[in-house]
Design a protein that fits this description.
With about 280 residues, the protein is an alpha/beta fold. It has 10 helices and 12 strands.
Length: about 280
């Protein structure tokens, strides 16, 4: 694989890394499809395991050994640069000494709804979720509890935000994920026979009393304002998580995780088999 030493902030690859970390999910990179930036050897290894294309890896000089165990393809470009120069492009308070540009998976509706053998899709719909840590945690829980994909409505933070990527612990590389409009969402769910359930703390059915073993999509709203009323009115109904303690509501990621667990539990019970261990896919 080609290795180059970089000394300038004006290097095209370094500028691209800086741009995609600062504004994840916007525009297309030089490779045709929009690229994303990731930090650290663990995330790079997860991306490679997920068979993502990694056109370029950056390593601070003196930390080249961190790349030795990574199964980098022969066409991956490796740039060695001073630590301060790499740090200037990264978004975290304590930057890692290695980073990479990756090409996100090209997911389509077929991956979420039309895979062979898929009879009861379990989806998560995010409506204007703003906290990247919450989004990443939801992706991780969605994969852990066997969800078939996550849909992001307008106003939702990019799943390729560096904080989202880290919080997902690699799930963002593997779990089918689409940005969509409300109109497109409702049309596809209707055609596939998927029931949309919104979430609220008041005047809703307890999640454990609702059938979540069939084709369902769980609608998770904004951290402060919840699910928009115009969208909630188009759902099959509303779910709530009974909480005996004196807490008004749950964090969005926690609520999504509890509902995903309940859906997973019901599906295991209906299939007659044991529930899969935490982290397994169906």
């Amino acid at each position: 694989m080609p290795v180059r030493i970089v000394q300038s902030k004006q290097n095209a690859r370094l500028k691209e890394l800086r741009r995609v970390l600062a504004a994840p999910g916007r525009g297309a990179g030089s490779e045709g499809r929009g690229l994303a930036g990731i930090e650290g050897p663990n995330l790079i290894e997860e991306a490679l395991r997920a068979h993502l294309r990694v056109p370029c890896v950056f390593a601070a000089q003196g930390f080249e050994h961190l790349l030795e165990t990574l199964p980098l393809p022969t066409d991956t470009e490796v740039l060695l640069l001073p630590r301060a120069l790499l740090d200037s492009a990264l978004a975290t308070e304590s930057p890692q000494p290695v980073a990479a540009l990756v090409e996100p998976p090209g997911w389509t509706w077929a991956h979420l709804l039309d895979r062979p053998g898929l009879t009861a899709p379990l989806l998560v719909v995010l409506a204007a979720l703003q906290d990247p840590g919450n989004l990443g945690a939801i992706l991780r829980s969605a994969e852990a509890f066997g969800a078939d994909g996550v849909l992001c409505l307008p106003g939702t933070v990019s799943p390729w935000n560096p904080k989202s990527v880290r919080a997902s612990a690699g799930s963002v590389f593997r779990l089918p994920l689409l940005a969509t409009s409300e109109t497109e969402l409702l049309s596809h769910l209707r055609k596939a026979g998927v029931r949309l359930w919104t979430t609220t703390t008041h005047q809703a059915q307890p999640a454990d009393l609702v059938d979540l073993a069939g084709p369902v999509a769980l609608l998770i709203g904004n951290e402060g304002n919840g699910v928009p009323g115009s969208l909630a009115s188009k759902a099959e109904g509303a779910l709530t998580i009974p909480c005996p303690g004196p807490v008004e509501s749950l964090n969005a990621a926690v609520a999504a995780s509890v509902l995903l667990y309940e859906a997973s539990r019901q599906r295991a019970a209906r299939s007659g088999g044991p529930q899969q261990h935490l982290g397994g896919r169906r």
